[in-house]
Amino acid sequence: MDASLEKIADPTLAEMGKNLKEAMKMLEDSQRRTEEENGKKLMSGDIPGPLQGRYENGCAYFHEEEREGLAKICRLAIHSRYEDFVVDGFNVLYNKKPVIYLSAAARPGLGQYLCNQLGLPFPCLCRVPCNTMFGSQHQMDVAFLEKLIKEDIERGKLPLLLVANAGTAAVGHTDKIGRLKELCEQYGIWLHVEGVNLATLALGYVSSSVLAATKCDSMTLTPGTWLGLPAVPAATLYKHDDPALTLVAGLTSNKPADKLRALPLWLSLQYLGLDGIVERIKHACQLSQRLQESLKKVNHIKILVEDELSSPVVVFRFFQELPGSDPVLKAVPGPNMAPSAVGRERHSCDALNRWLGEQLKQLVPASGLTVMDLETEGSCVRFSPLTTAAALGTRAEDVDQLVACVQSKLPVLTCTLQLREEFKQEVTGTAGLLYVDDPNWPGIGVVRYEHASDDKSSLKLDPEGEKIHAGLLKKLNELESDLTFKMGPEYKSMKSCIYIGMASEDIDVSELVETIAVTAREIEENSRLLENMTEVVRKGIQEAQVQLQKANEERLLEEGVLRQIPVVGSVLNWFSPVQASQKGRSFNLTAGSLESTEHTYVYKVQGTGVTPPQTPSGTRTKQRLPGQKPFKRSLRGSDALSETSSVSHTEDLEKMEHLSAGPEQDAPEANSPERPPGAPTPQEAEQAGALQNGAQRPEDDRPQVEEPESLR
C-alpha cells in the first residue's frame, strides 16, 4: 500500500514542480520582455484578464496588506510633486505642507495608517464631509471639496492626493468619480480609487460612476476577497512614466522574492479562467439584486441603497411609524419632539436592529450578514455577497430563506415596540416597582423592585436587593412562559434589575407586571420572616435556659438539702418517694413563645398550638385553558380564532366559570331557614343533613378563594 502511494505521489510532485518552473519561466520572460520594451522594472502595458482594455498603460504592485499599496502611491506622489525631497527631506514638506483628502465615509483608521507610514503629522489629513442636502449621504461632497482645496492653496499648502471610493466600506456607495477626476486635473491632484464596486469592471455592464475609475491615476483591487481565494495578494494599479521614482517609492524592486508575490494570484486566475472570474462576480451581484428586490416588498424594512442599482452591497434596517407621530425610528427628529426623546427612540430602534441582525446571522449563517452602526441611520444589517459569497457558498435559496426569516421576525419586533409604552405605564402605576429606562435593551423593558430598605439615592451594590432579584428571576423562569428574563446591572449603576425580552402580540402586560410585583413582595416577606424567626429562636433559647435553671432551683428547694446527700437521699427517697413531674419547655415557632412540656408527658400527645392563618396571596386567580402558558391574553373575543375553536374555548371558559360560581349559588339555598311542612322522617332528616353538609362544604372553602380578592 505504501509503495503504491509513493508511486502515485512521485509523479504528482514532479508534475507540480514542472508546472511551477514553467510558471516562473513565463513570469521571467514576460518581465524581461516588458523591461526591454519600455525600460521599466515592472510589467507595463494593458492589464491582462477582465480589466484588459479598461485600464490602459498601467503598472501593477502586489502587496499583502491592503493599505500598503496606497502608502506607496502617496510616496510616489510626494516624490513627483517635491523634486528636492530626496535631498532636503522633511524641510521641503515643512515649507509647503502636503494635504491628503479623505472622504468621511472612508475606511476607519486609513488616515492614521498613512500618516504613520509616511511620517506626516495628522494636520496633513483633510476629512471631506459627505452630502447633506442632495445626493447620497455616503458620497463625497464635491462642492465642499473644491472649497477646501482653494482654502489650502491660499494658506500655502500643496493639495497632494485624493482618495475616492468606488463602494464605501459601510454601504457600498460610489463617489462621483468623473467630477472628482476633473477637479483633480484642474488642481494637479493625484486621484486614487478603492472599493468593492471595482469588481464590477469585469462585467459586461458597468455603471458610469464605476467606469470613470478607469481614468484615475491609481486603484487598489482585492481579488482574493472578491473571488474567495485565500492567501492571494492585493494589487495596486498605477500610471507613471518615471521608473526611477517608482523604484524610490518602493513600487518596483529588483529582488526576486518580491517578484514572486504575484505567483499565487497568477495561478489562481489561471485556474479559474476568465469565465470563472466573471461568473463569481456576476453571481454575487445577482444575489444582492435578488435580496434588494425581495426586501422592497416587505413592510417596515428600509433599504439604504435603493438608488445604487450597481452596488453589490445591500444595507437594510427595521423601522416603524408610530401612529400620530413622525417616523422617529428613521432617526428624523420631528418638530414637536424633544431631542432627548428622539435620541431615546433612536437607541431603542438600534437595539431592535441589532437583535434582528444577530437572529438572522444565527438562522442563515451562509448569508454572511454583519451588523454595523452608521452615523446618520443608526444600527443596520449589511449583506455583501461579493466579499462573503465565494467563501461561504451563498446561494439564491439562502437569500430566499433570509427574506422569510425577516418576515417571521417582524411581528415580534412591531409588537415589542408597541408593548414598551404599555409596560412603562403599568410599572409606573404599580407600587414597589421602578421602571428603568434602558433604550439599549432589545425587549419590552427593564424593571427593578424597590424593597423596604432600598436606598434610592445610592448607586452602590445592594446585597439584599440582589438577593431578591435573584429569587425573582428564578421564580419567573420557572413559569415556563414565552418570555425571556435576565438579570443584570442597570446602565452606570451596580443595582440589579430584571430585563424582559421580546414579546408576541398575545402577552398580557398587566398580568406580567402584577406577577413581578407580587412575587418580589413575597420573596421579600419570606426573607424578612426568616430573619425575624432566627432572632425569635435565639431569644427563645435564651429564655428557655433561664426558665429551666429557675425550675431546677425550685426543685432543689422542694426536695430539701438532705435528699441531695448520696446515701441519705437514697434512704429518704425509699421511705418517702417524691412525686416529681417531668418539666420542660418547647418553643412554638408559630406563636413565637415558650410552652410547658407537662401536657406532652401527661397525655403523651404533643400540643398543636395555634394554627397560623393562611398567608393571603396578592395574585388574582386567573382561569387558563389546558396548555395555556402564563401571561397570555384571554382567547375570548379573538378574531384570529376559527369558528369551531372559538366555540370550544368559549364553552370551556363557561364551564370553568360555572364550576367556580356553582357553590356560591347553592350555598344560600342550603342555609335558607325555610323548612318543608310536616315532620320529617329520620331518613329524610339524614338526607337533608347530608345535603346541607354537602352544600356547606364549598361554603366553608369559599373564603379561601375570595379572601385574596377581598384583601386586594
Overview of the structural elements:
InterPro entries: GrpII_AminoAcid_Decarb, PDXDC1-like_2nd, PDXDC1-like_3rd, PyrdxlP-dep_de-COase, PyrdxlP-dep_Trfase, PyrdxlP-dep_Trfase_major. With 712 residues, the protein is α+β, with helices and mostly antiparallel strands. It contains 21 helices and 17 strands. Helix 12 packs across helix 14 (385-392). Strands 1-7-6-5-4-2-3 form a 7-stranded mixed beta sheet, with helices on both faces. A 4-stranded antiparallel beta sheet has the order 8-9-11-10. A 4-stranded antiparallel beta sheet has the order 12-13-15-14, covered by helices on one side. 29% of the residues are buried.
| Spatial strand order of the main sheet | 1-7-6-5-4-2-3
Overall pLDDT, averaged?
76
H/I helix tally: 21
- Which word captures the global form? elongated
Poorly predicted ranges (pLDDT <50, ≥5 residues)? Answer: 1-9, 38-48, 323-339, 610-621, 635-650, 662-680, 684-712
Structural class label: alpha+beta
Q: How many extended strands? A: 17
Distance between the termini: 86 Å
Radius of gyration: 42 Å
**Proportion of residues in β-strands:** 5-15%
Largest sheet entry: 7 strands, mixed
Helix content: 40-55%
Organism: Equus asinus (Donkey)
Protein name: Pyridoxal-dependent decarboxylase domain-containing protein 1
Region (Disordered): 607-712
Domain PDXDC1/PDXD2 second: 311-417
